[in-house]
Amino acid sequence: MSRSWSLIDFVLIWFGGLLGSAAVFATNVALDDERSTILLGLIGQYAGSLLVFWLLSRRKGQPDIGLQVKGGDFVYLGLGLIFQIGVALLLLPLATRLFPDGRPRQLIAEQMAGADTMVLQVGFVVSALVMGPVVEELTYRGVLLRSLSRLGQWPAVILSSIVFMAIHIPGLSPSAMLESAVLILPPLFVLAVILARLTQRTGRLGPAIFVHSGWNLLAALVFLLPEDLIDQVG
Q1: pLDDT per residue over 21-70, tens digit each?
Q2: Which of 51-55, 139-143, 170-174 has the lowest average pLDDT?
Q3: What is the rounded CA–CA span in Å between residue 153 and residue 201?
Q4: Residue 80 lies in domain
Q5: 156: closest CA among 166, 165, 145, 167?
């Protein structure tokens, strides 16, 4: 008989990711390439979270997490991309006012933009479009949302979305923390609400994973374009 997911499980999975990332950084302190270390740290984070998730899943008797993907889910990739473009256009006047020299970037996005080798570029793209969406949806819309479901549908949506938004605060640009928070955190909260409701309505994580991947797709495309081409467009 399987046991349901709990808040303790979410915390353990989150700390598994933290320890996985810390382990990578601890073993690569002498690595000269900062971006390579960041990428390996991301891989360690995802691996650590997945390992703890797998161990907990086996211990609980494989409880249902909704990790099902159907062929039609691919359309949600486009929806995520359209949503990201819409948010970017909506916030463009505020972004221009707060950052006349350009929109703020999260720290990971800065590393992606500066990737100067094909291996790093592919690694960051796979991280943003595949590993990140899968692991984060398992963690936040899978384990966390399900653990909060006993409070009711909307309380679970709101609380899990607040946690998802808050977890991204350390990734904001330190040099403009407040301004970055104003532009980046509210859209992340709205995104999390949409992902949570999609998961509740479909009973699966597939749609949320593809929307999440589509949301990240625009940033991946922009940051991988040559800087001189971006300057010409701007």
Answers
A1: 888 877 765 455 667 778 888 899 999 999 999 999 988 887 788 888 89
A2: 170-174
A3: 10
A4: 67-233
A5: 145
In a domain, 6, yes or no: no
Measure the CA–CA gap between 211 and 29, rounded to whole angstroms.
35
Looking at the domain assignment, is residue 20 inside a domain? Answer: no
Burial of 1-32, coded b for 16+ CB within 10 Å and e otherwise, reads eeeebbeebbebbbebbebbbeebeeebeeee
State how many domains the chain has: 1
The set of long-range contacts for 103-110, using a CB threshold of 8 Å and a minimum separation of 24, is 103/183, 104/172, 104/173, 104/176, 104/179, 104/180, 104/183, 104/184, 105/173, 106/168, 106/171, 106/172, 106/173, 106/180, 106/184, 107/171, 107/172, 107/173, 108/38, 108/42, 108/171, 109/219, 109/223, 110/173
Q: What is the DSSP string of 187-201?
A: HHHHHHHHHHHHHHH
**CA 165 to each of CA 160, 171, 191, 227: distance values in angstroms, whole numbers, following the listed order:** 9, 11, 9, 29
Q: Is residue 60 part of a domain?
A: no
User: Within a domain: residue 33?
Assistant: no
pTM, two decimal places: 0.87
pLDDT tens per residue across span 188-231: 999 999 999 999 999 999 999 999 999 998 877 766 655 543 44
